[in-house]
Design brief:
Elements (H helix, E strand, L loop, with lengths): L9 H6 L10 H45 L1 H4 L7 E3 L9 H7 L11 E7 L3 H11 L5 E7 L11 H4 L11 E6 L9 H19 L6 E4 L4 E3 L1 H9 L6 E4 L1 E5 L5 E6 L3 E4 L15 E3 L3 E5 L5 H10 L14 H10 L13 H6 L15 H5 L18
Parallel strand pairs: 1-11, 2-3, 2-5, 3-4, 7-11, 8-12
Antiparallel strand pairs: 5-10, 6-12, 7-10, 8-9
The structure holds 2-acetamido-2-deoxy-beta-D-glucopyranose (2 copies).
């Protein structure tokens, strides 16, 4: 026991009980019992060192991310809560009453609305988005790059599908930008670079002071009535985040209502810069949908998983196996096998495991229900994807 080097030889472990214990006189018997006990201890220590510790280390390698996510409440406190503005809407309530209910006055004419997005590969979701917002948007502004945020070359997919978006053509300002393809750079730098270019494109599109500007990812879709309310009411806050319903893979998996990154700005030249982080404390409740990874083809999942800003999440190559991806989609489980990103143990534990199915297709983007056959994969009960 005194010799530390003892443990370094696994052969010793094998030798430990090759003597037969408990032979000879009573004294010898009790002596050898003690020795056997000690040897048992040594055996256990050996087992601990050579079996459990490697398993433990391998476990940390496999699940380290989960362990740190689970312990998040210990190392990170939750962000400051938003001031949530209650949101009133019914199709049969006049705009004047709607504005009044929010403590605002109705305007004589609506503001112009600019919807600006950075496009990656979300052709189907973009179709839903632009059809939803079409009645109220004056200019659709779209920028795409031939580089993902992580510096992977990509085709100009909007350009390739432009004929699908003929209906917005008279109101479209489209721009492209070449990627910088810097190896090993933080993806947020390329993202910031593209957002600055989007500011330029907005000026080209003719945005002016007090026009409404929607800043959001393509898959964060404000509901049409929300934008209509904001363009018709005076005195709305200069910057307002939109609380969206979070869905994963399709409208079959409703996760929570914690999406807040989308925002609407009353544009101020020189002050308003395109951003996708928290810019104010006010959040308008129930303002639309955030459908993450709502793709038609498995190949789009693979592309997005690789192109993601948080590309470190693809830790094992089997994550990209199409069969595994299909299984994960149908279960409502996590593509990256991660724990929920929450700030209290109660919420982490409450949200562990797959997202439960929902069978409600009430209050979804109208274009989706009017073209249900074409967009089946987004509706409850249709989790099977084409390989593409
Ligand atoms: C909408 O309003 C009209 C008249 O104000 C009323 O007749 C009708 O029943 C209302 N519809 C709903 C669905 O409330
Ligand atoms: C990306 O676009 C820029 C500008 O159009 C071009 O110069 C560059 O060659 C393109 N790179 C790739 C990899 O397509």
């Amino acid at each position: 026991m005194s010799d530390a080097g003892y443990y370094s030889s696994s052969k010793k472990c094998d030798d430990i009980c090759d003597e037969i214990c408990g032979q000879g006189s009573r004294a010898a018997l009790s002596m050898s019992r003690v020795r056997c006990f000690l040897r048992g201890l040594e055996l256990r220590t050996c087992v601990l060192f050579f079996v459990f510790i490697p398993i433990f280390i391998f476990g940390i390698y496999l699940h380290g991310q989960k362990i740190s996510y689970f312990l998040r409440p210990l190392w990170e406190s939750p962000p400051k809560p938003f001031h949530i503005i209650p949101h009133y809407y019914h199709e049969n309530v006049s705009m004047e009453t709607q504005c009044q209910l929010h403590g605002w006055k109705v305007r004589e004419f609506p503001r112009r609305v600019f919807d600006a997005v950075l496009f990656n590969n979300e052709v189907d979701i973009l179709t839903l988005r632009w059809n939803e917002l079409y009645p109220y948007v004056s200019q659709f502004v779209l920028l795409e790059s031939n580089s993902t945020f992580t510096g992977i070359p990509k085709r100009l997919l909007f350009a390739a599908n432009r004929d699908k978006f003929k209906f917005v053509e008279p109101r479209l300002t489209y721009g492209t930008i070449g990627g910088r393809f810097k190896k090993g750079e933080n993806p947020f730098v390329e993202e910031a670079y593209q957002r600055v270019a989007l500011d330029q494109l907005l000026k080209i599109a003719g945005i002016e002071d007090d026009d409404l500007l929607i800043m959001s990812d393509v898959d964060e879709i404000p509901s049409a009535h929300t934008i209509n309310l904001l363009r018709w009411c005076d005195d709305i806050p200069p910057i307002l985040h939109l609380q969206l319903r979070n869905y994963l893979y399709s409208f079959e998996f409703y996760k929570d209502s914690k999406s807040w990154r989308a925002s609407v700005h009353r544009y101020q030249t020189g002050n308003t810069l395109y951003a996708h982080y928290r810019q104010t404390d006010v959040l308008l409740a129930d303002s639309g949908w955030h459908c993450s990874f709502c793709f038609r083809y498995i190949s789009q999942f693979v592309f997005k998983m690789k192109a993601y800003s948080h590309c470190d999440r693809v830790r094992f190559s089997h994550y990209l196996d199409p069969k595994r991806i299909q299984d994960v989609i149908c279960k409502g489980a996590n593509l990256f096998d991660m724990l929920p990103e929450e700030y209290t143990f109660k919420e982490i534990i409450g949200k562990m495991g797959p997202i439960p199915h929902t069978y409600s297709a009430v209050h979804l983007p109208s274009y989706l229900l009017n073209h249900a056959e074409e967009y089946r994969f987004l509706l409850p009960g249709n989790c099977k994807r084409e390989s593409g």
